[in-house]
Design a protein that fits this description.
Structural class: mainly alpha
Helix content: over 70%
Low-confidence stretches: 1-5
Oligomer: single chain
Shape: elongated
Number of strands: 0
Order of helices and strands: HHHH
Radius of gyration: 24 Å
Strand content: under 5%
Largest sheet: none
């Protein structure tokens, strides 16, 4: 029985291929050009769309999620601050009109 070895591709290569697939090239075209299985191409393209440049790094998806959480927490803090300012402005102007 022959042993098949799975090709190891660098993260930069996967990013390059994912970008090619996403630039309206067909999976069949890219698969034929590089000799890569279509299912791998689909997975790489989906991962790249979901996680961007972190998709193929070790712990990349986790880092992406952590980064997204930090951004959302920052955005929440900004919105809470804006809401507090609006509440104070509303209170100020409602007293002034009495």
């Amino acid at each position: 029985m022959e042993e098949t070895t799975m090709a190891q591709y660098t993260s930069q290569f996967k990013i390059q291929i994912a970008k090619e697939v996403l630039k309206a090239r067909t999976y069949a075209e890219v698969s034929k050009k590089y000799g890569i299985n279509r299912s791998d191409l689909k997975r790489w393209a989906n991962d790249y769309e979901k996680y961007g440049e972190l998709a193929f790094e070790e712990d990349g998806p986790q880092k992406f999620q952590e980064q997204k959480i930090r951004n959302l927490e920052r955005q929440l803090a900004e919105l809470q601050e804006e809401n507090d300012i609006l509440k104070k402005a509303t209170a100020y102007f409602s007293k002034r009109n009495l």
